[in-house]
Amino acid sequence: MPPKASPKPEWLRVKAPQRERVGSVKDILRDLHLNTVCEEASCPNIGECFQAGTATFLIMGPACTRACPYCDIDFDKTPRGLDPTEPDRLAEAVYRLNLTHVVITSVNRDDLEDGGASQFAKCLNALHHKMPQTTIEVLIPDFCGNIDALKTVIRARPQVLNHNIETVPRLYRSVRPQGNYQRSLNLLKLARELEPQIYTKSGLMAGLGETDGEVIEVMTDLRAINCDILTIGQYLQPSPKHLAVVEFIPPHQFDRWQQAGLEMGFLQVVASPLTRSSYHAAEVQKLMSTYPR
Predict the structure, then answer these.
(1) Given CA atoms 283, 284, 286, 287 in this order, what sign does their dihedral have?
(2) Inter-CA distances, 27 with 11, 63, 219, 270, Å
(3) Gyration radius from the chain CA atoms
(4) Within 10 Å of residue 80's Cβ, how many Cβ atoms?
(5) Tell me, which fold does domain 10-290 have in CATH?
(6) What local confidence, expressed as pLDDT, does residue 76 receive?
(7) Which H or E element spans position 201?
(8) Residue 4 pLDDT more than 70?
């Protein structure tokens, strides 16, 4: 049984957001009946992001067909059918929020033949039509290794394709039991092979019992398949029924991982206790200007 973590340290405390801006973003989301991973996954940065007028949209949800023990999104073996109006409602939200960069993610939909890839494509197409100047990042599931599903998403022209590796191989059975480390690596590798101009991205959670050496090995694996962008953040236990935090990683360790990643050749590494996969995602626009494809 993993040791109990000490109380949450000072560096993980988050300032309360300004209610006015957060409320206006929530009003738009409610009006258009949209979900965000910010809310569904209890993201600690929800105040900062909503205050800045940004959100990571969660499509095909809110229930997920996988029950990952670290994740706060609801589990449902038989989630609802896909809503054909969702792509247009999402595009309308991006228009109202006047977003120059948007992140679209989803729950796992293993009940669908293509894992929901076609819904991703429809959302992308709706955004390209309504907000042609907005850059788009998709944070996709592994589609159970379905290559045609990945091709469907890539054909819809996202600028950034993100798939989180989440943890080190040794911990997959306990942290991500329905995932597969090599399958996730293969997905990111194939994305770059199918579309060399796309920027690939992945993310890791820290504090689940991994060692520093294991983190470096995952980073090395990601660079070996030309992954461009990496995020590393502290895992936080959403509730007592979820996996416990084994260790709170101090900020200087995240700084070391960031430096190591840049030395390996990642174009961008965002690493801090509060970093999440979509945290400050719009900064990728600077990366695109610096390293155009």
Answers:
(1) positive
(2) 30, 21, 39, 30
(3) 18
(4) 10
(5) TIM Barrel (3.20.20)
(6) 82
(7) strand 199-206
(8) no
